[in-house]
Design a protein that fits this description.
With 745 residues, the protein is of the alpha+beta class. Helices cover 22% and strands 34% of the residues. Strand 11 and strand 12 form a beta hairpin.
């Protein structure tokens, strides 16, 4: 249908125009502009809204009309989807719930339409009649039900102008919107329709548009025919025209609250102030405050946020919407608006920030405020515990050292630390004690946090002292005594640096096989030592073998055993010689050639059996064979080497004569008896005495003869000349027998 069907173009009488213009001039509710100062309410405060005729739009059915055939494209940021979502959010959030006290029982959203091409986009400048015609055109074109409250949104490109009033353009001031009724329609016939209009040319942001819309919807619902329904009659202080007209600009429900939260006030709401908000599926939107008689305040009711603290000995603070505020802090915020706050934690002590702080677990808040919030942060005092080691250089290696950190005042903190900290194979630190803390035994301790504390785990530097050896086979056990304690070797023990150590290696160490042993020859370093670092003491061992020389034929007589020119000791038949010699010692054993027994009995060495080896490489035992001449004669007679008893008896008596002279100290006489014996043996050799026995008897007698030469000379029984003659006799016979004579006396 053409718009002009609803414009009353045929009956726009000048008087009608004038009366409507006067009414409009009075009813323009300037959204976002200050409320007028007014006297006290005509009724009992706070019931500021008076019920006059009292007709309301109930149920309140809201229908959005967008006065543009391409609204969303031509009005970016003000999409129909967003504005419709805001309208639904106003209803679902309960924003309109306080209207029930005025008789608006229910609220619903009836939908929306943008301008049908037949109704057209708003002209660049329009008046009330254009608005009325557009609403009626849309109503009939879309066959909309009667009783709706039409919320009209004019495009940014169009401005209102009539009777000296105009909507603002961006950057200017002016009317933001108003609510009224359309003219009745003749063709087709229709009654006036209640509407509100939002001039987006003036309030062009989405939040400004939704705030203006909320303002006008509330007033259209509670005062659908201004000023005859719910309105503050006290605004008109007199019956003058100006006073009566003020009812339209300052007396309706939303007008009373244009100054912001709280009770009506003459001051305008700051442009940057927050408005209450509702939340839809596409976002959150500003809405306007309106007066509630039952609350005696503008609604939605603002909410109080109160923040405080306990536990801080100084003034605390909280961060509210990014601003630090000193506690206690109280502020008022619009309903449904987003806010956030938090309590700082930790908070440093202003006097000793390095060691004292305060913490709280009080939660912060981030969200939509829909009720009063009161939050008290309880702070707990904490002290800083510093843990360290002495020396400090080993602290990075102390893996179980209690970490430095904060602890609540009065807390008993359990401390731990490593028992040992190893730096290398021979270098470590031993835990010794705690400084300041109370030991619980071992490496454990506790400390009560009554102030900032520093505890130190004290360590002692140790070196690993090892005792080893060279020269003992690995299977042979040995020991070492360190500071009086015997330990099986090889041994390793940790000692504190500066400790004095006295040690001794076992020596000799017997081999697992008898007859071999290991003799300590030196240690490097030598005992004692003072521990300055880890080190290894090495004992040097020499392998030794036991040489055993027994005798046979001596009885109790004693012989001397030699290895080369080195005397080894003595031996008897009852007491063999046992001596230890180094492994590899060259052997050249000898024994006394003549041994004098009791009664001047003479024993003559014959041989070692078994014969000694050239080198001693293992334990060795041998026997020195001795015999005397009477026994040799008797043995030879028994085995037939002497075949004549008379010869045997004669030789025995001759030698016994020499022994008797020796026993009597008659060495010169002994020399004569020995010469007779030697000559007798030589004469019988090969006859009654075998040559072998004769040679043995003669060599033994010559050996004794040499001894008696020396004894007689020493006793002065012969002269040197005689001794020289006797020696020549001796040497000639020894050489003749194939032996080497002994040197002269």
């Amino acid at each position: 249908m053409a718009t002009d069907l609803y414009r009353w173009s045929s009956i726009r009488l000048s008087i009608v125009r004038l009366s409507i213009a006067c009414l409009l001039a009075a009813t323009f509710a300037v959204a976002g502009t200050p409320a007028l100062s007014k006297p006290a309410s005509a009724g009992a405060f706070p019931a500021l809204l008076d019920r006059n005729v009292g007709s309301v739009m109930s149920p309140l059915m809201i229908h959005n009309l967008y006065w543009d055939t391409a609204w969303t494209t031509n009005n970016p940021g003000l999409s129909t989807a967003q504005i419709d979502d805001a309208t639904r959010a106003m209803i679902s959030s309960g924003y309109f719930s306080k209207l029930a006290q005025y008789g608006v029982a229910s609220v619903a959203f009836n939908g929306s339409n943008q301008a049908d091409p037949g109704c057209g986009t708003a002209p660049a400048s329009f008046d009330y009649f254009a608005i009325s015609g557009f609403v009626l055109c849309e109503k009939h074109f879309f066959n909309l039900a009667p009783g709706l409250v039409f919320m009209v949104y004019s495009p940014r490109s169009a401005t209102f102008s009539m009777a000296g009033f105009s909507s603002c353009t961006p950057g200017t001031s002016g009317v933001g919107g108003f609510d009224f009724q359309t003219l009745p329609s003749i063709i087709p016939p229709d009654v006036p329709q209640v509407f509100g209009i939002d001039f987006t040319s003036c309030r062009s942001t989405l939040n400004q548009a939704t705030e203006t819309a909320a303002h006008e919807i509330v007033e259209a619902a509670t005062d659908p025919l201004p000023p005859f329904d719910w309105i503050d009659n006290s605004v008109a202080a007199s019956l003058s025209l100006g006073a009566i007209l003020s009812l339209f600009t300052a007396g309706e429900a939303s007008d009373l609250c244009e100054a912001g939260v709280g009770s009506p006030a003459p001051l305008p709401i700051p442009p940057t102030a927050q408005m209450p908000q509702v939340t839809g599926s596409l976002g959150r939107y500003d809405v306007a405050y309106y007066w509630s008689n039952s609350d005696g305040a503008c609604v939605p009711l603002p909410h109080t946020v109160t923040l405080s603290q306990v536990g801080l000995p100084f003034a605390g603070s909280a961060i509210f919407d990014g601003v630090v505020n000193t506690l206690p802090f109280t502020t008022t915020v619009p309903d449904g608006t987003p806010h956030f706050f938090s309590f700082p934690s930790p908070v440093a002590d202003p006097i000793n920030p390095a060691g004292i702080r305060y913490v709280t677990s009080a939660p912060g808040f981030t969200g939509i405020v829909t009720s009063n919030i009161s939050r008290t942060a309880t702070y707990t005092q904490q002290f800083f515990l510093t843990t360290r080691t002495n020396p400090a250089s080993i602290q990075p290696l102390d893996v179980s050292l209690t970490t430095s950190g904060w602890h609540n005042a009065g807390t008993v903190v359990s401390l731990t630390t490593d028992a040992l900290i190893t730096l290398g194979s021979t270098d470590r630190y031993r835990f010794d004690s705690w400084l300041v803390a109370t030991s619980t035994g071992g490496t454990g301790a506790t400390i009560t946090m009554t102030a900032p504390q520093t505890v130190t785990a004290v360590y002692v530097h140790q070196g690993l002292i090892s005792f080893n050896e060279v020269g003992i086979p690995g299977t042979v056990p040995w020991t070492v005594i360190v500071n009086g304690v015997t330990t099986s070797g090889p041994a390793s023990t940790w000692f504190d640096l500066g400790t004095s150590l006295t040690f001794s290696y076992q020596t000799p160490v017997p081999d697992l096989t008898p007859g071999t042993r290991y003799m300590l020859t030196s240690t490097t370093p030598a005992s004692p030592i003072v521990v300055a670092s880890g080190l290894t003491v090495v004992g040097q061992y020499q392998t030794q073998h036991q040489l055993t020389v027994s005798t046979i034929g001596l009885g109790t007589a004693v012989t001397h055993i030699f290895n080369g020119a080195t005397p080894l000791g003595t031996a008897t038949d009852a007491a063999p010689l046992r001596v230890w010699l180094a492994h590899g010692t060259a052997l050249s054993l000898s024994a006394d050639a003549i041994v004098s027994g009791s009664g001047a009995q003479q024993f003559f060495f014959s041989s070692f059996a078994p014969a000694p080896p050239a080198t001693l490489n293992s334990p060795f035992a041998t026997t020195a064979q001795y015999s005397n001449i009477p026994q040799l004669i008797a043995d030879a007679l028994a085995n037939g080497s002497i075949n004549n008893h008379g010869v045997a008896n004669s030789l025995t008596k001759q030698f016994q004569k020499a022994q008797a002279d020796i026993a009597a100290g008659n060495h010169a006489g002994a020399l004569s008896a020995l010469r007779a014996f030697i000559q007798h043996v030589r004469a019988q050799s090969g006859h009654h005495v075998s040559p072998a026995v004769a040679t043995q008897l003669e060599l033994n007698a010559l050996l004794l003869y040499h001894q008696e030469i020396c004894a007689a000379l020493a006793a002065g029984q012969i002269t040197p000349r005689t001794a020289a003659r006797d020696y020549a006799y001796y040497a000639t016979l020894v050489i003749a027998l194939g032996r080497t004579p002994l040197p002269p006396c």
